[in-house]
Every structure is written in structure tokens, then in C-alpha cells.
Amino acid sequence: MFQFLGLIGSAVSAASSISRANASAASAELNAFMTETQRVQNEVSTKQQSNLRNEQFQFAQSANLALMGGAMSRDISGVDRSVAAFLERQREIAYSDIANVEFQGKQQDLALSIAAMSERRRAADIRASGLANAFTTALTGLMDYNEVRMPSSPPPQKPFSFLDT
After folding, report:
1. What is the pLDDT of residue 155?
2. Can you give the pLDDT at residue 83?
3. Most buried among 39, 54, 62, 107, by the most CB within 10 A?
4. 3-state secondary structure of 120
5. Which of 125, 112, 135 has its CA nearest to residue 40?
């Protein structure tokens, strides 16, 4: 009877091991999901920053053209080389800023993608470890049950005595 209870205890322990592993794996999967969500938010933020910098450039370009063409009476059609050089340099700076923002955003996206993949791998490892632990526990319980049920050593013999003969 007690050996059967031990077998049941091993089965419960194995099931508990699987349950713990599944809970930990679910937590790791949630972390991966949150990291992916953060990556998407970062992507949107990068696009917003790029668009904002482009809008700032367009606004500054319009203001510069208005100032040079109106108040300073400079030729803004491209004939005045100093005006054209100034406007070209402003364009280069703006596009360089946009490229830097987008590059940093891509780097952050990559880091977050790697973190999410790492969490998914951790979840799979946790599940595999839980299953291995459950299998080992169940196997040990079964072996103990068989050992108690059918001992490997013969039962003790009555000591020899000359009086019994």
C-alpha cells in the first residue's frame, strides 16, 4: 500500500514539475511579447523623429528662402552661388540628422529583436528542462516502487541452529 502511495507521490511531483516549467515558460513568452511590443514602439518613435526633423528642415528652408529672397533681396533661383551653397548645406545637415536617427532606431530594433528571440529560446529551454525533470522524477518513482514491491535481495534466512535439526 505504501509503495503505491510513493508511486502516486512521484506522479504528482512530475506533474508539478511540468506545471512549474509551463508557468515559467509562459512568463518568458510574455517577456518576449513585451520586448517585441517595445521594438514596434521604438520603430514608430524613430519614424516620428525622422518626420519631425524633416518638417523642421522644410520649415527652416521656407523661412530661409523668404528671408533671403524678400528681406535680403538675394537671388534664390540658384544663380547666387552662396545662397545655393547655404541651402545645400542645410539640406545635407538635415538629411544627415535623419539618417542618424534612423540608424540608431534600427540598432535599437535589432537589440530588442535579439532580446525577444533570447526570451523565446529561454522559454523553450525551461519547458524542455521541466519535461526532463518530470521524466526523471516519474522514472525514479517507478524504480522505487518496483524495488519495494520486489526486493532485489532475497528475504533474510533464519539463522542455522543445531537445535532445529
Report:
1. 63
2. 84
3. 39
4. helix
5. 112
Section 49-68 average pLDDT: 92
DSSP class of 153: S
Rounded to the nearest angstrom, the gap between the alpha carbon of residue 94 and the centroid of all alpha carbons in its chain is 34
Q: Alpha-carbon dihedral of residues 101, 106, 110, 115, nearest 10 degrees? A: 40
Kindly give, in sequence order, each residue whose CB lies less than 8 Å from that of residue 114, ignoring residues fewer than 6 positions away.
none
Is 65 buried (19+), middle (13-18) or exposed (0-12) by CB count in 10 A? Answer: middle
Angle at 147 between CA 21 and CA 13, to 5 degrees: 15
The whole model's pTM is what? 0.70
DSSP H or E stretch at residue 1: none
Residue among 52, 131, 61 nearest 91 (CA): 61
**What pLDDT, on a 0 to 100 scale, did the predictor assign at position 136?**
92
